[in-house]
């Protein structure tokens, strides 16, 4: 599937609208969260949010908050 999407100004940002065909392919609907990730070949991939990834991201955020000072020292 190849869809040409036009970028539009939305407030101070730029976005695009997904047509019904793309939403059906993603099995997504209005209000769902999607993930934009970089593939190993440098391309970008758009996927629906998976609960496992959301859980992992929350765990990482918690660790980063808890060990903020330690991580800052290690980054030097």
Features:
3 helices, 39% helix, elongated, SpoVT-AbrB_dom, alpha+beta, two-stranded antiparallel sheet, single chain
In short:
With 76 residues, the protein is of the alpha+beta class.
Question: What do you see in this structure?
Answer:
The protein is an alpha+beta fold. It has one domain. β3 and β4 form a beta hairpin. This is Putative addiction module antidote. InterPro entries: Doc_partner, SpoVT-AbrB_dom, SpoVT-AbrB_sf.
Topology:
Blueprint: E1 8-10, E2 13-15, H1 20-26, E3 34-38, E4 44-48, H2 51-66, H3 68-74
Antiparallel strand pairs: 1-2, 3-4
Shape: elongated
Share of helix, binned: 25-40%
Q: What is the number of helical segments per DSSP (H or I, 4+ residues)?
A: 3
- Give me the Rg, rounded: 17 Å
**How are helices and strands ordered from N to C?**
EEHEEHH
Strand content: 15-25%
The count of DSSP E runs of length 2 or more, i.e. the number of strands, is: 4
Q: How many domains comprise the coordinates?
A: 1
Unreliably modeled segments:
none
Report the sheet with the most strands, covering strand number, pairing sense and barrel closure.
2 strands, antiparallel
Mean pLDDT: 88
Q: Helix/strand/pairing class, anyone? A: alpha+beta
N-to-C span: 46 Å
Taking strands numbered 1, 2, ... along the chain, how are they ordered across the largest sheet? 1-2
